[in-house]
Specification:
The protein has 8 helices and no strands. It is rod-shaped. It starts with 10 loop residues before the first helix and ends with a helix.
Length: 454
């Protein structure tokens, strides 16, 4: 149960905690371990509980001694001694269930025991630790809320400045409106011309690529022809070495060779003509390349201007995107601000209501205190009147006692006199009785004598 509820601390830890966190001034100096062990002192425990209630509920210790003067209470002066203890007991009974202590009794105030007192103080110590942690968290949340409010204000200022900058960037002054229109027209014309020239350049590039492929093919054919010529020369040399004696075969071979040479010469002339044509075409291509280079430079200039325009357009788009983003953030922040304002207004309403309630309670308490003080003054007046009456009664009782004493003295004297008279009368009555008896005896003798004579 101790692991599942709260730990029970030692007396030294409890004394150190309550001296630093709860008690102040001379009370913290005079509070020692001997107040709790081996036998707790009721006065120290009661003052400690009063200070805990004052720390948690702002219920001052002197308020425990105020008697609730009702009409049906007779002699409220007699309740002053037990009022403080009963007030502390009732409020501790209401508070300790929050600390998981449910068996607090009146005997724990009047005659506290060591283990029970340490358990109750450990429970209160655990609750105070938890209260301190929660208060730190609440203070952190308040600081974060304030920081968020400050950040929201800075964001709103930044959004306003950004909106002003965007307006400055987007709005063209009327002095430069004509120039901007001219620049936009020239840019559109340049874009059209650059598109047309880019198409022409692409067509010429395609033609140049085709001519380059044809030249490469012809060069490959020339190389192949040169290889064939070298092979034929080798064959001729071989054939010369292997000349047959028959002249007819030589003639036929020579004719074949001549035809081959003519064909080769014709192909060479054709290739030379083709090469000349290709060179002319290459010269024309170089000329076109120079023109294309000029056009390319112009296109680069146009491209740089287009890039600048694109950069400006991208910057404009980025600024618009940032503006939209800022607007979204501003909307979110406005929504959050509205929520925070609602929460703040609700909190302010609650605080105002609580302040009004507190003010009402305070006024009621002050009125109650004034009534109680008036009743106390009336009670003191009645008490003084009762004291005066009691003094008069005591005086009267003293006078009666003196009279009774004097009467007792007189009575004692009278009783003594009466006793003396009684004693004298009793002695005289005894003498009379004796005399009467003697006369009776004498009369009897005389009667006996007379009866004897008769």
């Amino acid at each position: 149960m101790t692991e599942n509820t709260f730990p029970v601390y030692t007396a030294d830890a409890i004394v150190n905690f309550y001296r630093t966190e709860v008690l102040t001034g001379q009370e913290s100096k005079h509070f020692t371990k001997s107040d709790l062990t081996p036998a707790p002192k009721p006065e120290a425990v009661q003052t400690l509980y009063m200070r805990v209630l004052h720390l948690l509920y702002r219920f001052r210790p002197e308020c425990h001694s105020m008697v609730p003067l009702l009409e049906n209470i007779q002699y409220p002066v007699y309740h002053e001694g037990a009022t403080a203890i009963m007030s502390v007991y009732m409020r501790m009974r209401q508070f300790l269930p929050m600390c998981l202590v449910y068996d607090f009794s009146l005997n724990d105030l009047l005659a506290p025991k060591k283990q029970k007192t340490l358990t109750v103080l450990s429970a209160i110590m655990n609750f105070l630790h938890f209260r301190k942690q929660r208060m730190d968290l609440v203070l952190e949340k308040q600081a974060k809320f304030r920081a968020d409010v400050d950040r929201l204000q800075t964001y709103t200022r930044g959004n306003r400045e950004a909106e002003k900058k965007i307006e400055m960037l987007t709005t063209i002054p009327p002095e430069q409106q004509a120039e901007a229109d001219e620049l936009a027209a020239t840019v559109s014309e340049l874009q059209a011309t650059t598109m047309h020239e880019c198409q022409e350049v692409n067509v010429k590039n395609d033609c140049i690529a085709e001519w380059k492929t044809k030249i490469a093919e012809k060069s490959q054919k020339l190389a192949q022809m040169k290889v064939d010529v070298s092979n034929l020369k080798e064959d001729i040399s071989k054939l010369k070495s292997q000349i047959v004696e028959s002249p007819e075969e030589l003639k036929t071979q020579m004719e074949r060779m001549r035809e081959n040479v003519k064909n080769i010469k014709n192909s060479i002339t054709e290739t030379d003509e083709r090469v000349v044509e290709l060179q002319n075409m290459v010269q024309s291509v170089t000329h076109t390349e120079a023109e294309i280079q000029q056009m390319y430079n112009l296109l680069q200039d146009l491209e740089s201007s287009m890039n600048n325009a694109k950069q400006r357009q991208e910057m404009y788009q980025e600024l618009t995107a940032q503006y939209e983003k800022k607007q979204k953030e501003l909307k979110n922040l406005c929504v959050e601000e509205a929520q925070l304002k609602r929460a703040q207004s609700m909190k302010l309403d609650k605080e105002s209501k609580q302040n009004i309630r507190r003010q009402m309670k305070k006024e009621m308490k002050e009125q109650h205190v004034q009534d109680i003080l008036g009743q106390c003054n009336q009670i003191h007046q009645k008490r003084e009147e009762m004291a005066d009456k009691i003094q008069e009664i005591t005086r009267e009782t003293l006078q009666l006692k003196t009279k009774i004493q004097s009467l007792r003295d007189v009575c004692s004297k009278e009783t003594e006199k009466a006793q003396a008279l009684y004693d004298a009368v009793s002695t005289s009555m005894d003498d009379l009785h004796k005399r009467i008896e003697m006369h009776v005896v004498d009369l009897k003798h005389d009667f006996v004598k007379i009866s004897a004579n008769f």
